[in-house]
Every structure is written in C-alpha cells, then in structure tokens.
Fold this sequence. Notes:
By secondary structure, the protein is mostly helical. It is built from four helices and no strands. It has a domain at 39-107.
Amino acid sequence: MRARERPSRESCCRLKKKSREKQYHTDFMSQKRRLQDYDINPCLVESNASRKCLEVNQSDKDMCAIYFLKYKNCRKFWHGIMMQRRQDGIKPHMPIAEERKRILASLEGAPY
C-alpha cells in the first residue's frame, strides 16, 4: 500500500489564506446588499435621506443634523423591537417590511 501524500504546510496555509480573503469579500458584498434591502434594513429611507443631504450640502454635517437624528432614532426604535422579539423567541428577529408597516400603523405613524 502506498501512503497518501499530504500537501505541504506552505501550500495548505496559502489555500486557507485565499479562502479567508474570498470569504471576506463575499461577507462585504452581502453586508452591502443587506444595507440596501428594505426587507432587512428598516431605516433605509432615513439612511438614503441623510446620504442625499450630505451630497447636496457638500458633506456639511451641520446642515444634515436633523436627518442624522431621524436615522439614529429610527435605528434605536427598531433595535428595541428586535430585542423584544428576540426575548420573546419570535423569528425573524427583525420584522419584515409588511410587519413593520402594520406595527407603524398600529402606532399611528412613525414614533421617530
């Protein structure tokens, strides 16, 4: 019987490094897609509004403080909802877009 030849330690490490780089790239892309998906990101409208304000005002953050505050309050509100659902064992932890519309309708508008 022939003994199996094992790959050298160097080639093994190179393969691991390449797979780690590839994994990082796909994680980055999925994160970017996640931020632009309305089903996942409940504050997409506020995020886009603050980004647009920065573009219009040549990155003058003082002019966009109201937009930043709305975005921050939106994130805080939905984070609280998500944590409550997690404690209650409801999945998905972040409600989908249809559920969020129902939640906001029951509150008679956005509280942020």
